[in-house]
Specification:
single chain; 275 residues; alpha/beta; Rossmann fold; two-stranded antiparallel sheet; 44% helix
């Protein structure tokens, strides 16, 4: 298991996301990309495959773009709720019709409310105690409900090539997962079992840039600009043949466990009932 030590108090307490992160997540380029129909295409397909309808809680929802698109595509199928600690981002989500809760997830009282799906899209790497978040998620899931996790893959081709120049070695990233480490984390929560886990996503521009950059990290404005550019490419009809070739490369890397991210689908189980 790879993890940061020591960790700044403002990151553990969540004040970092309230005071600093909005400059990135509320930038014009980031918002335009997040609210593009293609932005969360993979995540929406995964959720749709394992949860055809029901209540969905997005932990770390930021500006609410994922839930907004989920409800836009299937307005009759899902009831949604987002939670985060970044107040300005939640303000934006609410202005776009996404209901939110504003307290830290571990402190929130959901009373008797239960969910058919809980999502952690690029969240667990930010948490000081990710196991506690999975445990709470398990307690909030309906029987056979699903938890979806997406994290950077520390065995990806990009990490193997660029080493410590990898742009996602960031102060706010506290945990760095391999597939084995993620499985072992899930195994510590008896109410969850892994349905499927795979590596996915590949951004060759990130690989190229990180290979040649001479500075540590990438400024937020450049990250947002790249996200806007790649989102535009996904929507450009003239680039369809290139996207087919890219998809083939991504599938090969995913099959080898070398794609940029890990995605895991976890299911709530009652092990005592099976004994």
């Amino acid at each position: 298991m790879l993890f940061a030590n020591p960790v700044e108090a403002q990151i553990i307490q969540g004040t970092f996301y309230r005071d600093q992160a909005p400059s990135f997540c509320l930038s014009a380029d980031k918002l335009e990309s997040d609210y593009a129909p293609v932005r969360f295409g993979r995540e929406l397909r995964w959720l749709r495959r394992y949860c055809r309808a029901g209540t969905v809680l997005d932990v770390g929802c930021s500006t609410g773009a994922f839930l907004h698109e989920l409800r836009r595509r299937w307005p009759e199928d899902y009831e949604v709720l987002g939670t985060d600690v970044a107040g300005p981002a939640l303000d934006y989500a609410e202005r776009h019709g996404v209901p939110v809760m504003r307290a830290p997830f571990l402190e929130q009282d959901f009373a008797r409310q239960r969910f058919d799906a809980i999502t952690f899209w690029a969240v667990l790497e930010h948490l000081n105690e990710p196991g506690k978040f999975l445990a709470k998620a398990a307690s909030l899931l309906q029987p056979d409900g699903c938890c979806f996790v997406l994290v950077p893959n520390m065995q990806s081709l990009t990490v193997r090539c660029v080493g410590n120049r990898y742009r996602y070695f960031m102060p706010e990233h506290l945990n760095y997962f391999t597939a084995d480490a993620l499985r072992r984390l899930v195994a510590r929560e008896p109410k969850l079992t892994v349905v499927t886990m795979k590596s996915t996503h590949f951004n060759p521009i990130v690989l190229w840039q990180d290979l040649w950059q001479k500075r540590p990290g990438v400024p937020e404005v450049e990250r947002a600009r790249l996200l806007k550019r790649t989102t535009a490419w996904k929507q450009n009809a003239l680039l369809a043949p290139l996207r087919l070739a890219y998809g083939a490369v991504e599938r090969v890397l995913g099959g080898l466990g070398l794609a940029d991210n890990l995605v895991a689908v976890l299911r709530r189980v009652d092990r005592s009932a099976k004994m």
